[in-house]
Amino acid sequence: MKILLVNPPNSGRSIPEEEYGIDSIKPIFRGEPLALEVLAGNLRDQEVMILDLKVEPDALAATLVSFAPDLVGITGMTCEANTMVALAKGVKESCGALVVVGGVHASNDPDFFHQPAIDYIAIGLGKASFRELILALEQGNGTSAIPGICQVGSGGKASYRPRQFSMADLVDDVPPAYELVQRYREHYILTSLQLDMGFVATAFGCPFRCHFCCIKALTHGKYLAHSIDTVLRDISLLPDIPVIRLLDANTFANVEHATRLGTALKEARLQKQFLADVRSDTVVKHPELMALWQEAGLRAVIVGFEEVDDGSLSAMNKANSVAVNSEAIRILHDLGITMIGDFIVSPSYNHSDFDRLERYISDHKVDLPMITVLTPLPGTPLFRDMQGDITIHDLDYYTLTNAVTPTVMAGKDFYQRYAALLKMSHSGARL
């Protein structure tokens, strides 16, 4: 079967730009489509092509003609969901291929994709289930019994058998098909240093239950870690890439596994530098683990600090505290590990809240703050809690840089303070 896997173009709209002329906020997503490389790696007996529309935004029509796929798979985030549907319509009009959608939004809100141009929805981690679908289609077998695969019908809601995710869904013995994006490789860079950057997964899922997070649906809340040999193999498949982004929700959720992996990386002497996600309470409880990883090449960590007062953290079900966050910052500074600190500003913010966040970032010398707007993504507990407050339902605006619920401050004031905070945070920031 000829299979085309599509990464959508940069999508999403910007309220501050459209309404107030503030053009410095709209995010641009970069990096290779690891999810598609993982799917393709498990389909090496098929003819597979990856099309990255973030690099070639206008290439779909010509590719459908030249490649003539039997099936097109499209992934995407919430702010890309409308674009995914438009791409599916384009596929149907051009060549009539079967269309399968998957990814974060499909896993959290499958009903959204119950549309005429879409044939199947892959829900959750799809490395195994997508292959099961392809084989069933090839062999002319029914597809309704494949766990995690929803066949779109006329009922209006997604009906499918939930998949009981396990280690088998990682398909450890099959590596990602990195070679299928080789023609795009020069575009996958760490912009702050203009260094080539590659993506490797050490684990999928997260055991924590933050109200705003959409990760749970990918594995139904399970944390599944690749074997040490698998991670080392995948890193070795990117021999000329100096910086490896470990694209996990939480690389250190299983401390025993993270210790074994850090030791293996240190002993392998790979001459790589790593970026990884870690919770601040893990840093505080296990500073020796951070020290081990620093020796293994850990250059920077992404830490979800989120807020700067305990009440807000509790409301997010973050299971953490400001005191722990501050201690983690001290430990990381002492180890010389760069901090990329994730913070969330709420639509309920007033000027004093912005002042407080600005002081915290400055006083604690967070190396590179990444600041988003609290967004109730469909399928999350936060969405269920805030559903009655949402005034903007167009998913194009769910970029994490727009307030989709009313702001306490005047809209222009809110976005001006947000833009100023981003400018302050990113000025001179280097990893």
Classify the helix fraction into a percent range. 25-40%
Mean pLDDT: 93
Identify the overall geometry: globular
Please compute the radius of gyration using only Cα atoms. 21 Å
Name of the CATH first level of the largest domain = Alpha Beta
Major β-sheet strand ordering: 7-8-11-12-13-14-15
- Note the gap between the termini: 43 Å
CATH architecture of the largest domain: Alpha-Beta Barrel
The CATH homologous superfamily of the largest domain is termed Aldolase class I
Major sheet, described briefly?
A: 7 strands, mixed
Give me the secondary-structure category: alpha/beta
CATH topology of the largest domain: TIM Barrel
* Quaternary class: single chain
Number of beta strands: 15
Please report the number of helical segments. 16
Q: What percent of residues are in strands?
A: 15-25%
The total domain count is 2
Low-confidence stretches: none
Helices and strands in order, then pairings?
Layout (H helix, E strand, L loop, with lengths): L1 E6 L7 H6 L13 H8 L5 E6 L7 H8 L3 E4 L6 H14 L3 E4 L2 H5 L11 E3 L4 H13 L9 E3 L37 E2 L4 E6 L2 E2 L11 H4 L4 E2 L2 H9 L6 E4 L8 H14 L4 E6 L1 H6 L1 H10 L1 E9 L3 H6 L6 H14 L2 E8 L5 H13 L4 E6 L7 H6 L24 H16 L5
Parallel strand pairs: 1-2, 1-3, 3-4, 4-5, 8-11, 11-12, 12-13, 13-14, 14-15
Antiparallel strand pairs: 5-6, 7-8, 9-10
Give the structure's gist in a few sentences.
The chain is of the alpha/beta class. It has 2 domains: 2-164, Rossmann fold, CATH 3.40.50; 188-426, TIM Barrel. Helix content is 35%, strand content 16%.
